[in-house]
């Protein structure tokens, strides 16, 4: 049974609270715990946000898509409850966390098949528009800047999840630093790997911004929990991430510059016909064949790029 302390009693440690909220909805939506159509949903966290039936009956979550979309609304609602104690910047980060969480659910919408992140949002619009409406504008603005592709979104959520595991383990038992140091090292390694992938991401700068947000959360946790007997690793590489983005932009600009003079992406070349082709063309024009050779009289007839 997860901790169900009132929000107002948990705000004093927002990082841990965010992680506990994510854990609660993850536990509720795990593959092993997804309730079937015939099971009672009264004790499920997200029941209140299930789609309302056309006949006005209380909402019911029948499909996995229903459950995940309702879970997303529940997550946003719970995170919004923290907003009164947060800066505008932190509020913005909460939407990032929720969107990353949603991106990790694409493989359980339909068991045995894959649903894209865009497909999940379509389910939200169709099945849960009433509840989604209050968050739509903020979510749409944020998900547009976080259009990294399903693969990179899931990897970013992996880092968020590992950070939450570290914070949770630390708060559960601080007497054994070696135990949570293992989780910290795992987080640092995941972060490093994600930095190296920056140049392959569509919205590279925004990708680095999300990584920077996660790094800031880790750095804050590290600073607040200094232990001389157990030095937590650094998250290195955010500058490298930005450098990779700059290099990517430079390459794109260079490629665009090389594209000047291209037709349909191809370089135009002045092709000089050979003797046989020249004779055939002159015969068709009635001029007869000639014995002229390219380059006679000092003429330079070499192919050139226009």
Automatic annotation (TrEMBL):
**Polar residues compositional bias, start-end:** 285-306
Region annotation (Disordered) ranges: 251-306
InterPro entries associated with the record = Yir_bir_cir
In terms of Pfam families, this protein maps to: Cir_Bir_Yir
Q: Which residues fall in a compositionally biased region of kind Basic and acidic residues?
A: 251-284
Put simply, this protein is called BIR protein
Organism lineage: Eukaryota, Sar, Alveolata, Apicomplexa, Aconoidasida
